[in-house]
C-alpha cells in the first residue's frame, strides 16, 4: 500500500518551454501532497505544500509563478515548470500524506528534468 | 531552510557489520522518519516514530525516538550489499505537516 507514482520519469525540454509533472497516489487518498527538488548529492528541498482544492503554499524563495501547482483531486497533483531555463534542471520528487493524523510521507519515484 | 544534523556523512563498511547513524535537532520534534534513497529513485520510508523513547524495528533495521525528542538513531544489523544507498532522517515539529530533512548518510557495503 501507499504507492505514489510520477509521470514522466524523465523529460528533456528546450529553454523557454513549459513542462508538466504529474503526481498520483495510487492506493490512497492524499489530503496533502508535497513537491521537493533535489540537486545531485544533496538533500531534499521542499518547494511547496499542496492541499486538494486549495492554493499551494510555497516555501520562501520559490517562485509561485514559475512553479505552478494544481491539486485537482485527492489523488492527483501537478507541477508545471513554466518558461524553463537550464538552471531549472533538477530531480523533482513529490510525496503524499494519507490522512490528517498520519504524517508519514510516501514519495514518488521522481522526475529528472533537463532543460537545454 | 532548517535542516537536521545527520551523521556520519558517509560510511564504508564490510558486509556483515552493524551500522549506526543519528540525527539531532535544536527543535523538539513530534515525529521522526527514516528513509532510504537509491540513485535516481525517490526515498522509501523505512521506519516512522511517533513517541519519545519509542524503539521500532523493521527487519534488520531498528530506530529510536530520543527521550529529549531532539534526536533519533537508526541501526542496521548484519549489513548486506543491498543496504547500499543514502539514508535520510526527517523530523516533524508539532503543528506542522512539513518534514525537515537531514543531509543524508551515504552507506557503502563492501562484499
Commentary on this structure:
The complex is a heterodimer of chains A (116) and B (111). Chain A contains no helices and 11 strands. Chain A has strands at 4-7, 10-13, 19-25, 32-38, 44-51, 57-58, 67-73, 76-81, 90-97, 106-107, 111-115. In chain A, strands 2, 4, 5, 6, 9, 10 and 11 form a 7-stranded mixed sheet that branches. A 4-stranded antiparallel sheet of chain A has the order 1-3-8-7, with no helix packed on it. With 111 residues, chain B is mostly beta strands. In chain B, 0% of the residues lie in helices and 52% in strands. Chain B has no helices and 11 strands. Chain B has strands at 5-7, 10-14, 19-24, 31-37, 44-49, 55-58, 61-65, 71-76, 85-92, 100-101, 105-110. In chain B, strands 2, 4, 5, 9, 10 and 11 form a 6-stranded mixed sheet that branches. In chain B, a hairpin with a 7-residue loop joins strand 9 and strand 10 (100-101). Chain B is globular and about 45 Å long. The interface between A and B is medium-sized, with 26 and 23 residues.
Amino acid at each position: 500500500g501507499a504507492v505514489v507514482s510520477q509521470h514522466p520519469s524523465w523529460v528533456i525540454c528546450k529553454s523557454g518551454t513549459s513542462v508538466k509533472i504529474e503526481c498520483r497516489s495510487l492506493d490512497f487518498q492524499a489530503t496533502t501532497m508535497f513537491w521537493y527538488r533535489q540537486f545531485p548529492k544533496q538533500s531534499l528541498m521542499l518547494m511547496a505544500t499542496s492541499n486538494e482544492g486549495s492554493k499551494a503554499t510555497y516555501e520562501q524563495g520559490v517562485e509561485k509563478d514559475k512553479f505552478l501547482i494544481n491539486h485537482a483531486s485527492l489523488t492527483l497533483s501537478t507541477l508545471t515548470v513554466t518558461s524553463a531555463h537550464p538552471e531549472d534542471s533538477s530531480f523533482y520528487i513529490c510525496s503524499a500524506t494519507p490522512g490528517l493524523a498520519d504524517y508519514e510521507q510516501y514519495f514518488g519515484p521522481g522526475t529528472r528534468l533537463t532543460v537545454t | 531552510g532548517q535542516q537536521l544534523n545527520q551523521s556520519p556523512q558517509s560510511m564504508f563498511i564490510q558486509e556483515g557489520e552493524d551500522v549506526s547513524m543519528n540525527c539531532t535537532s535544536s527543535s523538539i520534534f513530534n515525529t521522526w522518519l527514516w528513509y532510504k534513497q537509491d540513485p535516481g529513485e525517490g526515498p522509501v520510508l523505512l521506519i516512522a516514530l511517533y513517541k519519545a523513547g519509542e524503539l521500532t524495528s523493521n527487519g534488520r533495521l531498528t530506530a529510536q525516538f530520543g527521550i529529549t525528542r531532539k534526536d533519533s538513531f537508526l541501526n542496521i544489523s548484519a549489513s548486506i550489499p543491498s543496504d547500499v544507498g543514502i539514508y535520510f532522517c526527517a523530523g516533524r515539529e508539532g503543528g506542522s505537516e512539513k518534514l525537515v530533512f537531514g543531509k543524508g548518510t551515504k552507506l557503502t557495503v563492501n562484499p
